[in-house]
Design brief:
Blueprint (H helix, E strand, L loop, with lengths): L11 E7 L2 H13 L7 E6 L2 E9 L2 H24 L6 H26 L7 E8 L2 E7 L3 H8 L2
Antiparallel strand pairs: 1-5, 2-5, 3-4
Length: 152
């Protein structure tokens, strides 16, 4: 048996259309602060498009450095796990060796992974979805009260 946690589809009406998500969020926060049942509110974005923000240039050296960092963390984890079974201070030597080897292999793999792209993507970025406009919608039964609380 499958249980759905989704709310039943209600009859929603547009309270206001805004240009940014921040404005829509601020309005819903205002409604909430004034005791409005925000479970009856939704924000609907229209005109969706992806936005990719380039954050930095990536070189072979930078890729190797990031790989070394990741490898060192992996080596630390592996060294701690292996060190649990060793007596005395031998665990420290295993831990340090694992961190160093992890960093070296991470740097090698980081360099090779970036080098193999042959410069097709020499930058790092963050992708996100944005909308052209945002509608704050309220269930039809609460629309009048929402207008009053929002001052519309």
């Amino acid at each position: 048996m499958t249980v759905s946690t989704a709310r039943p589809t209600a009859d929603y009406r547009t309270l206001v259309e805004l240009g940014t998500y921040r404005e829509a969020q601020s309005l819903v926060d205002h409604l909430s602060d004034n005791g409005f049942p925000v479970g009856e509110v939704r924000i609907v974005g229209s005109g969706l498009h992806t936005v990719e923000q380039v954050t930095r240039r990536v070189t072979n050296g930078a890729a190797a450095l990031r790989g070394a960092g990741s490898g060192a963390w992996f080596g630390l984890l592996l060294g701690l796990l292996l060190g649990l079974f060793l007596p005395g201070a031998a665990w420290l030597a295993v831990l340090l060796t694992a961190v160093v080897l992890g960093a070296v292999w991470g740097a090698i793999f980081g360099f090779l992974a970036h080098w193999s792209t042959r410069g097709e993507r020499d930058f790092a970025s963050v992708k996100g979805l944005e909308a052209d406009r945002y509608e704050v919608q309220v269930s039809a039964t609460e629309l009048g009260r929402a207008r009053q609380v929002a001052g519309l």
